Amino acid sequence: AMADMTDVLPTFCELSGKPVSGKSLDGHSFAQVLLRGEPSSRNWVISQMANKACIRTRDWKLTHDGKLFDMIGDPAERHAITADHETEQHATFRRELQRGLEEHLNL
Fold this sequence. Notes:
Elements: H1 8-16, H2 31-36, E1 45-49, E2 52-56, E3 60-63, E4 68-70, H3 88-105
Antiparallel strand pairs: 1-2, 2-3, 3-4
């Protein structure tokens, strides 16, 4: 299941039965993933620390410096997919992930 730290508060609120009254949160509860094994509502997560960030789906990860990783074929992130080995499919994933990262970071 895809989850990040913004998902913890909404999850605790749902599990405890205490609504998040009048607050707008970025996170999504993953209580149903824990309780019923339902699929996650997230298709991606973003991780950020200082001036470094990455966006990750189940299959792909793009870092702030443009490194694209195949998380199924290379889960240890040993070999970034470089431009000279990039297929049209890789380029499509890179563009989609870059757009998501830029929207989140307001670049």
